[in-house]
Fold:
Amino acid sequence: MGAANSFIKGLVCSKCKKTYREDEENHLCTCGAPLLVEYDLKQAAKKVTRETFSGRPASLWRYRELLPVKDEDNIVTLGEGFTPLLPLRKAGERLGLSNLYIKDEGVIPTGTFKARGAAVGISKAKELGVRTIAMPTNGNAGAAWSLYSARAGIRAVIVMPEGAPEITRNECLAAGADIYLVKGLISDCGKIVGRSLAKNGWYDASTLKEPYRIEGKKTMGLEIAEQFNWELPDVILYPTGGGVGIIGICKALRELQEIGLIGEKLPRLVAVQAEGCAPIVKAFEAGKRESEFFPDSKTVAFGINVPKALGDFLVLDAIFETDGRAIGVSDEEILSGWRELVSTEGVYPCPEGAALYAAVKKLKKDGWILPQEKVVMLNTGTGLKYPNVFSGEFPYLNLEAVL
Amino acid sequence: MGAANSFIKGLVCSKCKKTYREDEENHLCTCGAPLLVEYDLKQAAKKVTRETFSGRPASLWRYRELLPVKDEDNIVTLGEGFTPLLPLRKAGERLGLSNLYIKDEGVIPTGTFKARGAAVGISKAKELGVRTIAMPTNGNAGAAWSLYSARAGIRAVIVMPEGAPEITRNECLAAGADIYLVKGLISDCGKIVGRSLAKNGWYDASTLKEPYRIEGKKTMGLEIAEQFNWELPDVILYPTGGGVGIIGICKALRELQEIGLIGEKLPRLVAVQAEGCAPIVKAFEAGKRESEFFPDSKTVAFGINVPKALGDFLVLDAIFETDGRAIGVSDEEILSGWRELVSTEGVYPCPEGAALYAAVKKLKKDGWILPQEKVVMLNTGTGLKYPNVFSGEFPYLNLEAVL
Structure:
């Protein structure tokens, strides 16, 4: 056993502030709200400096003081994190921005940022002695949790809508997960998982019903701070479905402030949604702190097709507290943004990532983003996982005519 | 302009040892053999230590003294390199090996190790003032060169067999490459490119007709050395089609020896091929230093379906000089190896990578690999790029019955 030097203290309800232990299984608060991990940041402030992290291997585990795993032996890793932060000079020039960046979560095991949540979530599940996890999923999260479960020797029960992408279904299957397809929506899958948990003694790994996934996603915020040499950007854009990424980034920055590694100014956080599924945008525009179910949602960006997120109020808090905003883009804007971004810069984002580029265009145009501001688009995965979204006609060469 | 501190000296023929300049365009030697990059290793030995690299960002550019780009401003990067080197404890145990590792080149831009060759090749092309590159490809290389070309602002002409995977064709198209499909084999595509070069003034980026791709792939060897704290493994297995990877790794280790960063002992290099396309295995078993064209080749591992490689003699040199070997595995062994590896360890290799696992099994069984030896499998890409190779039946849940 090697101590990971985590400063974890316990869990606290994100609404009523009731506290829970972290060394036993906990999911939602009795009031129904998600639990968040608390650290002893006063102690951390005394021990943790920027140099604590800088010499360590380039994975998210370099931040282990601010992660929930206590024993290093429980860390389940496929080498995730410290993804590239790339300047986009040509695309920036095209948009009139001199400091545009993309953080590319396609360069990570399983090909999406879901790997971060799965790595930390499964590691903590291992530390808690969990034997079987269960979750509903639209695809990428299920794939990531299945693969990390395989590595940990934990059984995974995955329930997916039959419409979930085949590429992610195959990952679950290859990982040896118990996978079930449902002729219904992810909300139906969630109900099935919910009813099966107690009967079977499974560990609920559903979004925000499992408190440690946020901690994994948080590391995106820690990395952005360190990769910019602790000088935060002015704006961070994030494609927002369940919203765990934006909640995690905001939590990370708050924690860095409390231990004194960054100053007071926070980036404006922007939640980007598809117009076909924009509950957060609707709430933001109405000045509300909670969203309403968005009926008949539909978008090519499958990963952000979440009509009502459990943590919507946390997303809206993060937006309002940082003077950020929520913005919607159309599927047409997503697809044309994708083409423009790939052919200009050689990055290969998922549609959710391309939505950010479309959003930056709009926000620059209406003056909300200024020309010199440092802007980061958080691309959540590789376009390789969406083989059917983008394709085209190819010219054939007539061999006889050419040779 | 920032000097990259490269120790590049020039180019030398791999057969007749004739030398060429590196500050002008050069492809094959007049004798027809590939050119290799030479460095001033005596000077490098005086200046380069292990610490030169250790504090730098985790990308292949940390080794810039041993790379061909002279001006930092010419570096075209998507954040490639320093991929995870993961212990496989459970799979090792199953096979009776206590030190089995996988280096996972799936965690890299474009999803395959081809990104390394493209990053270094395109950077050097930019340094040489190239405006248009052209190449035949079976898929992954074309995708990588297209995307890095887009980032560099260089035009890419890509000629592919119509049987090349759709997922890679789409990458080329999205990158804005001029892509042509041919009703024929990669050898037909090569002929078309060859005839078009002079007429159009294009830069030939074909495998081994372009001397800098090897330098990019070489960094896999440099990383293995550094990631093992300069204590080399006993065996490195590599899926071998064109063979540039194994040639590059061998070149890297020789260079590290010459500048004194590693000792005399080299790992035994193993070229793994599919039984359906095994020209190197056939040559190795006959004790020959060159291979013969392997007719009617066929394998699920599309990336190593290369019936006759231009650099075959360099691959066989690397094998014989390190007391390594070549070994073939069947498609059935590849597929069952894949399933076993994914479900045991959570890694998600391409079929070429899975072939290594099948090979390790055989080599351990027949005693060529010993139980305590440190063994590295170099997985060349993510399984996500092969959505049709592995799939299965999924059980459906009857919603009415469950809820």
Remarks:
- The CA atoms of residues 186 and 241 of chain A lie 13 Å apart.
